[in-house]
C-alpha cells in the first residue's frame, strides 16, 4: 500500500489534530529530559563526591569532626530534597513512564538516605578510610544522576 | 546517521526497513553505552564489602560500625537491581522516540505538516 494513501486514510479517520496528539504524547516509558533537574542533581552529586573523597582521605576519621561537617550534610540533603520534588512532578504519558518517574525519585531519595547513613556513621564512630564506608553512597548517587540524565539525547 | 531532512519513503516496506535499521542502531548505541554500567556498580559494591570485612577482621572498625556500613551497602545493591529495571524503561522510550522520529519526518517531508515537533526539528525552526 502506498504510504500517502495510508496516511490519508489514517488522517480521515483520526483527524490531523488527533494524529499530532498521538505522535507528540510519547512519554510512555520514561519521562522527558529535564535540564534543570539534571543540573541540580549533578551539582548535589558533585558535593557528595567531594564529601566521599574527603572521608577517604581521612578528614573524618575522628567523630569529633562531625560537628564541623553538619552544614555540608545539610546542604547536600537540601539540594537532593529539591531535586526529588522536581523529579516527582515530571509529566508522564502512561503507567510505565509513571513507574520510571517514581524510580527516579526513589534513586534521588536513595542517594539522600546514603548521605544520612554516612552522617550517622560519622557522628557515631567517625569514617575510617579504606573500610568500604563511602562506596554505597557514591553508587546510589551516581544512579540518581544517571537516571535523571538518561533521556538527555532525545 | 540517517539523513532525516532528505528522507523520502513511499511504501510500507521501505518504512519498515528504515525503522529496523534506526531502531537497531539505537539499541546498539544504548547497549554499548550501558553494558558495563551495572557491572561497574556491582564491582564497586563488592570491593567495598571486602574492605569492610577486612577492616572488621583487623580491628580497624568496631562490629557496630561494620554493621552500619554493610547495611548501607545492602541498600545500594537493592537500588542497583531497581536501576537495571529503570534502564529497560529508558531503552523502550528511546526506541519509541526513534520510531516516531522516523515516521514524523516521513510525514513532514511528504506533507509539510509536523506532527511530532518535539522529535522532528527541521533546520531553522524552534525546538519544541
Structure description:
The complex is a heterodimer of chains A (154) and B (128). With 154 residues, chain A is mainly alpha-helical. In chain A, 70% of the residues lie in helices and 0% in strands. Chain A starts with a helix and ends in a 5-residue tail after the last helix. Chain B has one domain (4-111). Chain B has 3 helices and no strands. Chain B has helices at 12-34, 37-57, 63-111. In chain B, helix 1 packs antiparallel against helix 3 and helix 2 packs antiparallel against helix 3. Chain B is rod-shaped and about 75 Å long. Chain B starts with 11 loop residues before the first helix and ends in a 17-residue tail after the last helix.
Short description:
The complex is a heterodimer of chains A (154) and B (128). Chain A folds into two domains: 1-26, no CATH class; 35-149.
Keywords:
heterodimer; A: 154 residues; mainly alpha; 2 domains; 6 helices; 70% helix; elongated; B: 128 residues; rod-shaped
Number of domains of chain B: 1
* Rg over C-alpha atoms of chain A, rounded to the nearest angstrom: 22 Å
> Overall 3D geometry of chain B?
rod-shaped
Main sheet: strands, sense, barrel of chain A: none
Chain-wise SSE layout:
The complex is a heterodimer of chains A (154) and B (128).
Chain A: H1 3-14, H2 16-24, H3 35-56, H4 70-88, H5 95-125, H6 135-149
Helix pairs in contact in A: 1-2, 3-4, 3-6, 4-5, 5-6
Chain B: H1 12-34, H2 37-57, H3 63-111
Helix pairs in contact in B: 1-3, 2-3
Amino acid at each position: 500500500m502506498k504510504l500517502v494513501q495510508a496516511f490519508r486514510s489514517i488522517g480521515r479517520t483520526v483527524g490531523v489534530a488527533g494524529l499530532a496528539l498521538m505522535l507528540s504524547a510519547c512519554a510512555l516509558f520514561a519521562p522527558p529530559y529535564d535540564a534543570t533537574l539534571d543540573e541540580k542533581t549533578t551539582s548535589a552529586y558533585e558535593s557528595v563526591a567531594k564529601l566521599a573523597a574527603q572521608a577517604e582521605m581521612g578528614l573524618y576519621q575522628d567523630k569529633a569532626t562531625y560537628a564541623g561537617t553538619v552544614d555540608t550534610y545539610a546542604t547536600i540533603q537540601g539540594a537532593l530534597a529539591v531535586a526529588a520534588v522536581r523529579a516527582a512532578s515530571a509529566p508522564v504519558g502512561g503507567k510505565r513512564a509513571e513507574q520510571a518517574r517514581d524510580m527516579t525519585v526513589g534513586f534521588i531519595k536513595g542517594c539522600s538516605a546514603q548521605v544520612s547513613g554516612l552522617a550517622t556513621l560519622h557522628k557515631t564512630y567517625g569514617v575510617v578510610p579504606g573500610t568500604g564506608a563511602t562506596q554505597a553512597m557514591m553508587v546510589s548517587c551516581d544512579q540518581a544522576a544517571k537516571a535523571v540524565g538518561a533521556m538527555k539525547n532525545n | 546517521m540517517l539523513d532525516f531532512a532528505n528522507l523520502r519513503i513511499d511504501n510500507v516496506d521501505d518504512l519498515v526497513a528504515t525503522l529496523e535499521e534506526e531502531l537497531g542502531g539505537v539499541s546498539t548505541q544504548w547497549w554499548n553505552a550501558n553494558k558495563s554500567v551495572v557491572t561497574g556498580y556491582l564491582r564497586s559494591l563488592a570491593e567495598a564489602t571486602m574492605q569492610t570485612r577486612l577492616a572488621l577482621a583487623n580491628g580497624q572498625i568496631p562490629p557496630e560500625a561494620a554493621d552500619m556500613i554493610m547495611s548501607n551497602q545492602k541498600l545500594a545493591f537493592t537500588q542497583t537491581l531497581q536501576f537495571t529495571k529503570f534502564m529497560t524503561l529508558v531503552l523502550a522510550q528511546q526506541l519509541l522516540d526513534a520510531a516516531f522520529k522516523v515516521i514524523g519526518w516521513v510525514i513532514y517531508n511528504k506533507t509539510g505538516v509536523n506532527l511530532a515537533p518535539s522529535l522532528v526539528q527541521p533546520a531553522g525552526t524552534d525546538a519544541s
